[in-house]
Amino acid sequence: MTEAAPGPKADAPLTGLTVFELGHSVAAPFAGLILSDLGAEVIKVENPATGDAARGWGPPFWEGDAAAFHTLNRGKKGLAVDLADPQEVGALRRLILARGDVVIQNLRAGAADRYGIGAAALTAAKPDLIYCDLGAFGGTGPLAHKPGYDPLMQAFGGLMSVTAEGGDRPPVRVGASVVDLGAGLWSVVGILTALLTRKATGRGGLVATSLYETALAWVSIPMAGYQASGAIPLPFGSGIAEIVPYQCFATRDGWLMIAAGNDNLFRRLCAVLARPDLAADQRFQTNRDRVSHREIIVPMLAEVIRDWPMANLQHQLDASGIPNAPLQNIAEAAHHPQTAALGIIQSGPEGSLPVVGLPLRLDGARPAMRWPTPKLGEHNDLLSD
Predict the structure, then answer these.
(1) Do residues 184 and 31 touch, judged by C-beta distance below 8 A?
(2) Which tens digit of pLDDT belongs to each residue from 147-163?
(3) Distances (CA, A) of 41 to 35, 74, 135
(4) In the chain, what are the domains?
(5) How far apart are CA 93 and CA 71, in angstroms?
(6) What residues are labeled active site?
(7) Is the peptide bond before 147 cis (omega within 30 degrees of 0)?
(8) How confident is the model at residue 2 (pLDDT cuts 50, 70, 90)?
(9) Which runs of consecutive H residues, i.e. helices, occur in 26-139?
């Protein structure tokens, strides 16, 4: 009796799936990265003249390519294809139709269709193909044709309006590319959903998302507040509109985030600060009261907290069960014992750049980096198979 072939490892459930990434920059590559770390074979397609622009996003560089490129493209295979060359596109198209389960693309609006590798053409020729169209402003509407990048969407989608300090201070972008990364994550959610549907029906389909829709999703709470009240939400620096106190405060030797997210935690905070009078003040009894009197209570707390050594205050807050965290820079976060205990910064094969792995575990195992970042066109032999 022949033994059944072993199934995929628990930390690589997408083993056997082949994904073509017609993507660049951050959003589509992040989607491809997630699928790769989960076990899929991800084949990245780049311009042979310049490659993905992210290869040049530096310094710093690692083995000739930007650190940003490595963290977004590890574990993939690399093709260099001139999409303006009908012969090269034909070879790519044949390879997709022969081996592809999923295509992810974030080319400029209409470009994939012009080259004959858009959703309509490929799914007509291969009905079980899942095609993910990751756009800028979305597939319909007056701006559907426009290109877009993360900072544009942070501005246009309202995210930047609730991120700064307000007043006459200049606008501030979230330092990480949260719109790009989020659009990549929504792409994966859609792809996995389509894979479940394909398992039941045998048919693929079209997944569509965009940077703009992602930006709007990230402001869903302030958007709900606006829809309920008609008031335009304001920025509150490290704080938020709906809870007080819930922000960074300056201590004697550093910034400390304090999240007294309910009335009981506020009373405990006042006890730690030896200010029970604040907890007893009718203006601050409930969170609704404190939000209404934000301009009064926040400066009063700040005046007390600035005299505390941060370590002493942290100890007291921890003992009282009050959530808090120091403001760390990237180096401090990278080297913190909690980061080390989680094992989330991964080193792959020898010589590869240590990078942040996927923030999840499957049956106790974090998906592992499988091989280094591909060189431009490193796997072009696939096109002649």
Answers:
(1) yes
(2) 999 999 999 999 999 99
(3) 8, 12, 23
(4) 18-218+355-384 (3.40.50.10540), 246-327 (3.30.1540.10)
(5) 27
(6) 180
(7) no
(8) very low
(9) 27-37, 67-73, 86-99, 111-114, 119-125
